[in-house]
Amino acid sequence: MCEEGPMMPVIRISDQTWARLQKFAQPLVDTPESVINAALDALDAKDGNVRPKNLLAKLAEDKRTKNKELTPQKEFRPILLKTLFALGGQASVSKIKSAMQDRVKSILKPGDNEIVSSGDIRWWNAVCWERADLVREGLFRSDSARGTWGLTERGKAEARKL
What we know:
- This protein is mainly alpha-helical.
- It folds into 2 domains: 15-63, no CATH class; 73-161, Arc Repressor Mutant, subunit A (Orthogonal Bundle).
- The protein contains 7 helices and 2 strands, in the order H-H-H-H-E-H-H-E-H.
- It has a two-stranded antiparallel sheet with strand order 1-2.
- The longest helix has 15 residues, at 32-46.
- The radius of gyration is 21 Å and the shape is elongated.
- The termini are far apart.
- The model has no long low-confidence stretch (mean pLDDT 82).
């Protein structure tokens, strides 16, 4: 066996994490290690220990929502229930999002319109997490077709009360 240097540990990451790393890398310049080091530099800088060494680290630090107000996830619940009920109890995700945009404007706070790592707007990401909670609680269907959300009978009853 021929070694060209010290043995390095092998770290496995998900495809999603790999894609996130690639968003911060300059092709043919950065390596996975340099991107990870830049992220670590940004974390160190956040604590005041080290200044960011390059623009990549600065961008990673600036992407975070720091000291910005966010609408609590639970505040989207009644709006989501009423919106889906008004759409007939079942609708495509794109129709739901479109219908909710005007309804949420009055409750949004400064950080809610930022983009999260998935590429979604933060308020919509919160709505998606709330939808997951509603599925667990039996108010949203767990067997809806991909890209479609639907209310259960309990969910419809809850929406009628709002």
